[in-house]
């Protein structure tokens, strides 16, 4: 074989190696997504959380899990669509505040957490930042389960989730 032929073979092998590498990265990323999602779901199912929970250990476990999940969202370890679904679920447990730290959903979050937000979230700036809203929303309508307001309710939740997701993305420790 001539030197020119060897150069062509090397180029082909390089191209094949690059394609193989790209496929492996994609496979590994999907496995990371799957493993991370599975682990978070398992952890959430172990925590028996409800809006009337007053057990600080349970609440702290939930806060730890949320902090971890927000880190995963920010660093793209969990796909965006999954992150937004989980954020929507968090709206039913975490206190949402305005820029003055007034809890806007105090009747619809973990009541004890809403009342003791400053203390319980003092070591979780990512959570505090994420769930502090700049825009104004009809919070009561967001929790209205009546059929007549279902579409509007979903739109408000979607808008809030979008804002929270952007807050997570922009957060700097």
Short description:
This protein has 173 residues and is an all-alpha fold. The protein is built from eight helices and no strands.
Please explain how this structure is put together.
With 173 residues, the chain is an all-alpha fold. The protein has two domains: 1-46; 50-170, no CATH class. It is built from eight helices and no strands. It has helices at 3-46, 56-74, 80-90, 111-115, 117-120, 125-130, 139-142, 150-170. Helix 1 (3-46) runs antiparallel to helix 2 (56-74), helix 2 crosses helix 8 (150-170) and helix 3 (80-90) packs across helix 8 (150-170). The longest helix is centred in the N-terminal third of the chain and has 44 residues, at 3-46. The chain is elongated and about 80 Å long.
Distance between the termini: 58 Å
Strand content: under 5%
Shape: elongated
Helix tally?
A: 8
Report Rg: 22 Å
Structural class: mainly alpha
Q: Count of DSSP E strands?
A: 0
Low-confidence stretches: none
What value does the average pLDDT take? 90
Question: For the report, how would you describe the main beta sheet?
Answer: none
Helix and strand run: HHHHHHHH
Helix content: 55-70%
What's the structural blueprint in terms of helices and strands?
Elements: H1 3-46, H2 56-74, H3 80-90, H4 111-115, H5 117-120, H6 125-130, H7 139-142, H8 150-170
Helix pairs in contact: 1-2, 2-8, 3-8
Features:
single chain, 173 residues, mainly alpha, 2 domains, 8 helices, 66% helix, elongated
């Amino acid at each position: 074989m001539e030197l020119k032929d060897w150069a062509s073979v090397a180029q082909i092998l390089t191209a094949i190696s690059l394609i193989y590498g790209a496929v492996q990265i994609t496979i590994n990323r999907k496995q990371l997504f799957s493993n991370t999602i599975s682990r978070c779901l398992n952890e959430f199912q172990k925590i028996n959380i409800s809006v009337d929970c007053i057990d600080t250990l349970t609440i702290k476990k939930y806060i730890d899990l949320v902090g971890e999940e927000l880190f995963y969202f920010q660093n793209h370890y969990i796909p965006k669509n999954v992150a937004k679904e989980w954020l929507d679920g968090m709206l039913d447990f975490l206190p949402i505040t305005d820029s003055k730290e007034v809890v806007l959903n105090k009747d619809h979050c973990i009541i004890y957490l809403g009342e003791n937000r400053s203390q319980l979230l003092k070591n979780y700036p990512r959570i505090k930042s994420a769930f502090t809203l700049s825009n104004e929303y009809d919070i009561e309508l967001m929790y209205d389960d009546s059929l007549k307001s279902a579409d509007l309710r979903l739109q408000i939740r979607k808008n809030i989730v979008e804002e929270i997701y952007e807050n997570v993305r922009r957060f700097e420790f």
